[in-house]
Records
---
Amino acid sequence: MLKQGMKYMEILNDIITAIGNFYFAGNKIYKIIGVILSIMVFHKAFYFVIGMFFTRKFKPAKKKHKYGILIAARNEKAVIGNLIDSINKQDYPKELYTIFVVADNCTDNTAEIARSKGAICYERFDDAHRTKGYALEFLLDRIEEDYKRDSFEGYFIFDADNLLKANFISKMNDAFDSGQKIITSYRNTKNFDENWIASTYALHWIRSIRTNHRARSVLRLATNIQGTGFLFSNEIVKDGWHYTSLTEDRALTADAVAQGYQITYQDEAEFFDEQPISLKVALRQRLRWSKGHLQAFVESGPYLFINIFFGKRFLKTNWNKNKKKVKKEKTFKNVMLDILESIRHRFASFDTLSQLTPISFINLCRWLLFSVIIYSCYTYTTGIYGSNIFSGNTILAKWLRGITDIEVNVGPGYLAMLLGFVLAVWHRLLWRMGIYFSNMWMAIYIFIIENKRIKKISLKNKILFTLTWPIFDIIGRYTTYIALFMNVTWKPIPHESKITIDDINNKAGA
């Protein structure tokens, strides 16, 4: 028995040593993967600089276009009336827009309220297909039957908790009239200061504007649609709405980019929505987002990847298939324009693919494999000498090293292996804590640069929201890990805010 035990120990030692011997080669692979991931997001540094100073501007429209306004609502009696009131107060001709509501599996009087406010309301009862995408599919099918989808030049999508500024449709019409087919807008928050959870969402939406939407619109690329407050041409839904996953906005974005569409941003069109204030509800929503994000990556990622190298040659759908192709004269100007469009489309595909790629999960896997498992096995044969417990390049790590200098020194063996594992985990936690504090600057930046557009918040709350803001990204990272292995279903987000567009306007005026 003793001999057999020693034999197993020798086998174990051989396995650990073999893994440890791969450390230097593995470290090179670790760095190569890191370089690839860095390349995928490197361009965002330029986005930040551009977004700080510039956004795309649109000239006043020459024509006022006809729109359908789509609202999917499930038990939204508390807010649906306020949204429709804000739409009815638009400075846009009322005969040029029609409000459509789908009361989706409602058990309250959402439908009655919508109709009393002048909306055309269809009721849907199909709890087996629960997502907002299915509700929109149903609504657009009813519009095709009763009105024909192409009787409206474009369609807006709003959530029931939204509120629109009076010039919202007019400003979006300016962008639509310029020839843009998909347009998103400035997303503000009506309950920004209700608690720290709502504030993390509010800061996130404005961060997206500053670090993504503004720059992409200036560069004529494709920004991402974020669930609500956007407008698209009727050609997008000429064959109906087919985005029924957990995050229909991500799916539509990826498909639109694969088709070669620009997705632009209109900074002058502003709306407000309500953010969750319950941590339980926020976690549930973020888990759904993460799962939908992964689904969009699986569904559209390969097409985007192919587009980077081959352009629009391999598509899963083609919205423009029925359009007559206009034969261009092969002039130098047209050839150059075609080349520039090809470059724009390929880069937009790369940019969108980089958004959909689950980089946080890839980083976790490479850290576990190379920095924890292989490194621990390496220390088994070499020991640990001169490893500072506060190593790292974050401001926090440097500050701690300035206070104290504690090093770990231990000879080869199982103790070194155990300490190697503990040090790897500890250094990761220390790095994450350093990143947490470093990320607070984004909240400070937003409070300063967007001071005129966000609601007035006390200094005490600004400090609190700055301190808690990085939690938003932490939640997103861990819900991505969980979503990979969990079956996620769609559940409604409750909305209870009584705030109206008049309340917001009165506070802004004051």
---
Amino acid sequence: DAGRQLLGEGAERIYSFGADGQAWDGSWLIVVVQAADLDGQARHRIRTRLNWAGFGALPGGVWVSPDPTREGEAGQILRDLGLADSAMSFTARHGSIGDQQDIVARAWDLRGVRARYATFIAEFAGLRPVTDAEMLTAQTLLVHEWRRFPFLDPRLPRDLLPAGWPGAKAAALFSSRHQRWSDGARRCWEALG
């Protein structure tokens, strides 16, 4: 049951991912996880699950999200990992010391995500499968590549995204190609069965 739920949530996130950044009220959710005494595997599980939820890591076991409504999700992740009793959460606004963009630069690798989007767009914008078999192959590759973005892209509000952020363009490309290739891919799949 847990596996089915995880796969269902993953599929929903993959296929609904990519809307342009939302407006932002300036609030940050801060989650502090006492991780210094945890082994590498436990730290990896925390990182994997909180990254998937859109959190970015700052030094000292501090995780940030510009979406305070994710507190319930973060709490569930920490309960699942047995860490809820040693964690804390806060909602805050950035003060006058430092620059808010420094939080973004430290917590997320947006340059790397931008490069991945550029590669995705370049790979699939010009792809023109003709046969049903080519459409099945193309659609399989499309979904395989796209499924990484919900893990890589933290879905930041547009106020925190760099100018010219390619996420919405990549999402539109994914949606249009997926729709265009679906019938041919389905016909090929059914013929294989």
